[in-house]
Amino acid sequence: MKSKLIFIFLFLTTISLVAQDATLTAKVSKNKLGLNQRLRIEFTINKQGGDNFTPPNFTNFKVVGGPSQSISQSWVNGRASFSQSYTYIIQPKRKGDLTIGAASIKIAGKTIKTEPIKIIVLDAVDIPKNPNDPNYIAEQNIHLVAEISKSRPYVGEGVYVEYRLYVSENVNVYNYGVSEAPKYNGFWHQDIKISGQPQVKMGKYNGEDYRYVVMQKALLVPTKTGKLTIDPMKMEVVIGVPSGRADFFGNAITRNIKREFASAKKIVSPRSLPLENKPLDFTGAVGNFKFDVSLSKEVLKANETSQIKVAVSGRGNLKLFELPEVTTPVELEKYQPERKESVRVRANGISGAVSDLYTVVPQYKGKYKIPSVSFSYFNPNEKKYHTITTEDFFVDVLEGKELKPTIDADAVQKQNVNSTGKNFRYIQTKSNLELLDSYDFYRSNLFYLLLLLPLIAIPIGIFIAKRNEARDNDVIGNKTRKAERLAKKYLSEAKKQLGKKEPFYEALERALHNYLKAKLGIETADISKEKITEILENKNIETTTIHQFIEVLKHSDMARYSQISTTEMEDEFERAKQVIVQLDKQL
Fold this sequence. Notes:
CATH class of the largest domain: Mainly Beta
Number of strands: 30
Mean pLDDT: 78
Shape: elongated
Low-confidence stretches: 5-19
Helix content: 10-25%
Number of domains: 4
Structural class: alpha+beta
Largest sheet: 5 strands, antiparallel
Strand content: 35-45%
């Protein structure tokens, strides 16, 4: 019985090995090396019965070792595998793009050949006296690389950067960690979360096979032109490298070392957005977007609210431009809009939607037009601007106070002018003209001044245009300046009352409450400071900014009953201005 089982096993093994197609493959340890370096090339046949193996003619290479042969055979899950390999160690004789020709072997009367392999040979490299030096081995087998999706984007166009740790099969990595994060000066950036444990993948580095792990991903949006530098990311890695010694059984003994690796600097040179056909209402939107304006109610009563929603959706720099503002008639009271965002940052860019929600309240009966709104953006793929314009809206207020009728100029009755005969007695009817001295304009100082004026004006005009372009591209600076203007608007009354203690602090407190009312749509005068803190925390406002806001409110209450100088009032005014700027940027 036992002999039968052995016979069946050998029979199945033979059938399995005969059934598979015979292939001869060639594999090199590296595709790029220095003139003074060596490489290993291995030829493998996957079927028994091969004979008359013929290596390639190693033209332009010197064989310094081999051939060494090895045979491997296994049986796994009812399937047999076999391989026989021939290994050579070779060294190039000259620089350039060299080719290792095809090797061949005969099996079952058929000749099988490998594909030729291209090798790039560069200048000689520095090799330490001891090639088994652990630091040298680590440097040759581990590489931290930053890869960017585009080096010449437009200002406002997203760039994807990915940091990869490449590790060859000659060493093992036991531990690693980021010691210094990269810096992205000149970019708006946001890291992209890598879910779960980093996955080990196979890839090519300098033409060689490597394992790699993606360590970090980020989306960068350039905010200005020029050469922007992405500083290196640094990592500390614990590596197991061969020590050059072997144990009793001939297995290589490894040694753990700790090394710091850094990625190379990357240069991104953003391009300015084209000036040709640039819309006047363009505010920096770059991507592919949809634009919509909607009205919640078109028929309502006086003091009944309606909401206007201005929304932009799509893919692009959604967080870095201002939405167009809605203009309403003076009879419709409009409050500061509430910003809503639903934005996702992924490897392929920023996508989602942002919207401003205006609350309007009519005061008088009548029918009012809300004019159309336009939104412009630049599509980097099409390299052109697009403008989307909505239709006019009409609000019909059925009940409320009547507007006083205005006087129609055409309805005023015209009257004829009666002449009395003396109405024009002061008009001069005669003149005495005298000949003046001749004046040669073409040789005067004024002539030469006007001649030189265009030459002076041209460089001044170019300078002003470049300065305005840089200011338009400075998205973050524009948002800061808008926030400062908003703060000055709310604090204008308090500024007028500087030096008058009670009116000043009343105006200051009222300005802070009005700001929150307009931004958040809440009546803050009737709620506590604890409730305001809770609302701001729900809006993801930084703790420091919330604390500063509450401190200004508290001080406004206490200062009315204590001795306060004008200088202290000015300091309090500046603190209130700064906290409104910070709140507006975060909201």
